[in-house]
Amino acid sequence: MFDLDPLLLLQTAPILLKGMLITLKITVAAVVLGMFSGTLLAVARVSPILPLRWLSALYVNCFRSIPLVMVLMWFYLIVPQMLARFFNLSPLTDIRLISAITAFTMFEAAYYAEIIRAGLGSIPRGQTQAALALGMTLPQALRLVLLPQAFRAMAPLLLTQGIILFQDTALVYILGLGDFFRTAVTIGKTNGYEPAMILFAGLIYFGICYAASRLVDSLKRALAEQKRAS
After folding, report:
1. φ, ψ for residue 128 (rounded to 5)?
2. Which of 137-151, 158-172, 197-211 has the lowest mean pLDDT?
3. Cβ neighbours for 157, distance < 8 A, ≥ 6 positions apart
């Protein structure tokens, strides 16, 4: 049942690599845009301006309370035409990819916001007071003093969230997008190796995530040693 012809993998390798490229595009774009948006949300959560705190909290709590698969379906079924007009996309553009990246970005921004907010909360208040005493404004203190320390402290968690995001990209299967997982399943169905190709795809995801998690562990140890040294 799980026998897989190695020749099939060789023949379909270019198609599988194309699917992996789509998966990586979604992952990288969502990590970069999600982290940027999450930083803005985190700053808003600690802002002295009450409406900003409320709006940020509403956004974070809303997206953290909704299943990711539902967000993907919303953006695929409800928002595509709006996205096409907003980004001035060509009719030939695969709106599924844009929808997936947008959905993942908005969803992950809520989680990155909480991670970065926790990083800001771990910094002693004296850091902010010292920066303000040196003549910095609060935005300058955030940009030059607080956020760099928050990112350094929470780097392992930020990277771990990126690994989770990479795993979650398999959910674009429901959109019919030709990511790595859907490509592997389609090849399996066409050639009569569906269970084996699903297992193969799972092993590839496991290998990538395991290697990335080992890098995160190495980073944790390096940060711990740096903290002890200082």
Report:
1. -65, -45
2. 137-151
3. 115, 118
Cβ-based neighbours of 76, under 8 Å, separated by 6 or more: 96, 99, 100, 103, 175
Mean pLDDT (the chain) is 87
In 10 A of CB 6, how many CB atoms?
Answer: 7
Query: Tell me, what CATH number does 221's domain have?
Result: 1.10.3720.10
Which one is predicted more confidently, 79 or 182? 182
Number of domains in the chain: 1
What domain range is 88 assigned to?
Answer: 6-229
Sign of the torsion formed by the C-alpha atoms of 109, 114, 119 and 120: positive
Unique residue bearing structure tokens 């930083």: 39
| Helix orientation angle between 95-121 and 50-64, rounded to the nearest 10 degrees | 120
Sequence-distant (≥ 6) Cβ neighbours of residue 123 within 8 angstroms = 146, 149, 150, 153
Per-residue pLDDT reduced to its tens digit, 22-81:
999 999 999 999 999 999 999 999 888 899 999 999 999 999 999 999 998 888 877 666
Separation of alpha carbons 200 and 4, rounded Å: 9
29: nearest Cα among 169, 193, 184, 186: 169
Domain assignment present for 1:
no
